[in-house]
Amino acid sequence: MQTTKTRLIHDLGLDNLTDYCKSENWQAFRAKQIWRWLYVQQATEWDSMTNIPAEIREQLASVFQLNAVSADSVETGTDTTRKILAELTDGDSVEEVLIPAGPRRTVCISSQVGCKFACTFCASGQAGFHRNLSAGEMAGQVLLAARAFGDNPTNVVYMGIGEPFDNYDAVLKSVRIINHPEGLGIGARRITISTCGLIPEITRLSGEGIQVELSVSLHAPDEALRSKLMPINKRYPIKELLPACREYTRTTGRIVTFEYTLIRSVNDSEDQARGLARLLAPLKCRVNLIPLSPVDEFSGRSSEQNTADMFMEKLADEGINATARQSRGGSVNAACGQLRFGGKEAGTTDGS
Ligand code: SAH
Asked: If you measure from the C-alpha of residue 5 to the centroid of ligand 1, how many angstroms do you get, rounded to a whole number?
């Protein structure tokens, strides 16, 4: 019997919550009632759950932690992007980013504290890996974003700190929690998981029967350069990764997006654009070109605007559907690849 509150209530799927209520001999409808308090009313205090009898609330409060994450500090960028330092119950913290754009409210959430994959141009892995986030801690980031936006996010992207496929079970569990129609109800097609290219999990995702968007970080058109930029390429090289993506599309009918960060004079030449187009020609896919965000530990610079334009045009000429992503959040170090864990120690926030 659990006596300390080390369990997060948000780590329970509706099925787990139902089992728990059964084990306590509570009426069958309690599980859904509690679920709605968590994800519809988004309660932050047990006592606000007014239609739950006091003894049940007390029992829940004695076993479960209600708030998986809390906002330690919030910084607003010059472009309305906001970065939240989300503090976890053990004192660790991760960053999440709120990106409002017209009717869209996108939140970029973290899946791990730190990262093992050490892509050279990314800040998140520079201090190594600390631990996985639980499903509840990921759902908690979405709830925190809902509070900060004043409304539920319309889109959720797993593109913050960490490698989602290195924490596959918890990530998928969190997807099912935030997607649940009787809770937050965020549509699967509005949820994007981004991976550095872990092939077994790409294959595994294709069997889940869930229509989430898959993004794969490519960043180079050849093995040598990709291995230099992304050490994971030595384990899962392009020549195996692309067939796995092709197979993913064949089984799910879903198109993969390849992320390609443009780094000046490293991966942005005309030849490289052509090479990339040739590589991707056999796939149904799209390419998302991302400007490099500055990271202290990486000396590369972002491509000149005219080079980026040329690169995109070349891809289009070769029949590849490419879009250029606007960099958002740079003024608060919340752009792609600038997120770090541990906030204060890492010196990324002023705590104001
Ligand atoms: N681990 C996942 C999620 C990472 S972040 C993945 O690798 O896909 C989301 C995207 O930002 C990835 O494509 C990542 O390669 C990219 N990124 C990392 N650092 C960056 C930087 N400094 N500038 C621009 N994009 C970056």
From this structure: 35
**Residues 140-194: tens digit of each pLDDT:** 999 999 999 999 999 999 999 999 999 999 999 999 999 999 999 999 999 999 9
Does ligand 1 have an atom closer than 6 angstroms to the CB of 290? Answer: yes
Residue 315 falls within a domain, yes or no?
A: yes
Q: Two tokens at 150?
A: 């004043």
CATH at 218: 3.20.20.70
Q: Write the CATH number for 31.
A: 1.10.150.530
Q: What residues are labeled active site?
A: 95, 336
- Atom 15 of ligand 1, residue of closest alpha carbon: 217
Following DSSP, what letter does each residue of 38-104 receive, concatenated?
HHTS--SSGGG-TTS-HHHHHHHHHHEES-SEEEEEEEE-TTS-EEEEEEETTS-EEEEEEEEETTE
Task: For residue 76, give its domain range.
Answer: 69-332
For residues 142 and 41, state if they share a domain: no
Domain boundary among 63, 80, 98: 63
User: How many domains in the chain?
Assistant: 2
How long a stretch of residues is the chain? Answer: 352
Q: 114 in helix, strand or coil? A: strand
Whose structure tokens read 């392009």?
238
Return the best residue to mutate from 95, 116, 121, 257 for the ligand 1 pocket (most ligand atoms within 8 A of CB). 121
Range of lowest pLDDT (9-23, 68-82, 244-258, 330-344): 330-344
Ligand 1 proximity of 122 Cβ (cutoff 6 Å): yes
Cβ(195) to ligand 1 under 6 A? yes
- List residues bridging with 87 in a β-sheet: 70, 93
